[in-house]
Amino acid sequence: MKRAAVIVLLLALLAGLPIAFRRESADVPASSADDRLVVISPHNETIRREFGRAFGAWWRAKTGRALYVDWRTPGGTSEIRLVLDASFKAAKETGREGVGIDVFFGGGEPDFASQAKQGRLARAEVFDRHPEWFGENAAIPPMLTGERLWATDGTWVGCCLSQFGIAYNPDVLARLGVPSPRRWDDLGDQKLRGTIALADPTKSGSVARAFELLVQSQMQRAMAERGADQAKAAALGWERGLQLILRMSANARYFTDSASKIPHDVGQGDSAAGMCIDFYGRAYRESLLRTNGSSRVEWIAPEAGGSFSADPVAVLKGAPHPEIAQAFVEFCLSPEGQTLWFAKPGSPGGPGERALHRTPIRRDVYTAENVARSTIPEVNPYAGEAGFVYRKELTGRAFNTLRQLVKVACIDSHDELKRAWRALADAGFPPDATAVLLDVSAVPYEAFGQGDAVLDGSDPVAAAKRASELGEGFRANFRRAEAITKRSQANPSR
Fold this sequence. Notes:
Layout (H helix, E strand, L loop, with lengths): L1 H20 L1 E2 L10 E6 L4 H19 L3 E6 L4 H17 L9 E3 L3 H9 L3 E2 L3 H4 L13 E2 L2 E2 L8 E6 L1 E5 L1 H7 L19 E4 L5 H21 L4 H22 E5 L4 H8 L4 E5 H10 L10 E3 L8 E8 L5 H12 L1 H8 L16 E2 L7 H5 L19 H4 L3 H13 L2 H13 L4 H7 L7 H4 L11 H31 L4
Parallel strand pairs: 2-3, 2-4, 10-11, 10-12
Antiparallel strand pairs: 1-3, 4-14, 5-14, 6-7, 8-14, 8-15, 9-12, 9-13
Helix pairs in contact: 1-3, 2-11, 7-8, 7-15, 8-15, 8-16, 15-19, 16-19, 17-19
């Protein structure tokens, strides 16, 4: 047991190294601060800076005390999950409750739900202090477009909303003779071969959710088309969704670990389009605006292809500064904190330097006055009919399975996939070879749609073996599709 405890502590130390070397604060230095707040977050530097300063000012006005915000930024939510896993295991071994971190700020609902399930999140006191903020007809309803906005047990709460869509470069698309995208399907157009930018869903919970929504949009479309047998329609939509991911991946230049690289490369003209979260796309659009009002980056929400997802905040169990941590959550949900997300820089309640381009979660913030000084006046998630409503029962349990399938089928086998796709495109996509390349029968909805017990299991050896077998199956398909194509070209009469 002692040896195991030492190993766990070493792992925690190694996992914590990125945190130790990547610490930031707002305006108040640690040496002159009265209080301290430790926040772990995947949010970008602009959000961290603006919220650190705004909350520091709010805390000083409330208490008269100077606050130092200690930001811990190990990477995306996948890296944060690894850090928290190692840290909480080490804390358990040594009899400690907390891990020296107060707040988990930013990420996807699945990441927070997972931490809550493991008993790592404290109840947010804002639910008791301001019960009038929460409810069906209150500022923050429990659900929106099928997505949960706060935990029923009060362990986490969304503080803004995110929508996944497509960033694209109109100039590059025009040069390729491809119209502006409207749906996820458009990213599978073979004319975009070598020009699509994608991110690795195993590195980011937000990217993983985008892939899940893509698959579910295909499922819902198939179920709407074939109303009689919903089970068969769901299975057909699952198949279409996985095939679309294969086509998109075959068009991809790369799979990046950094989701912010995608709109950057689109803006530079190195990529024609890519999957992108809304605020990244909007920020790059604004930064690349021309004098005539056009931009090198445009962003759209795909038609019937994406819901509004909560971007939560939570207090960690055993937080070293619980009072300040609870106050931070309250500030994020207050009218002042909410306005900060979408107000123009320098406007009343707005950020000091750069716009955040985020969608507030409180519906009562969308007043005429606030919208008039918003950077996204056209966006109101509570206005009009939802074009897409997420149905958790269709793909929710397959969230981790899907991200692993993308890795084994598309990332680990990317070279083989691209080579086969190129051969098929040059040959005009012969039906027999195309069917082999897009064969996803090894991962049917019946077996994988509710999550694969081995791929998502706690046994890493079994999971690795399962992933290897699946990956080799896809690689074999890609090689076979390429071989069929080359044979048919060599013997056109056959």
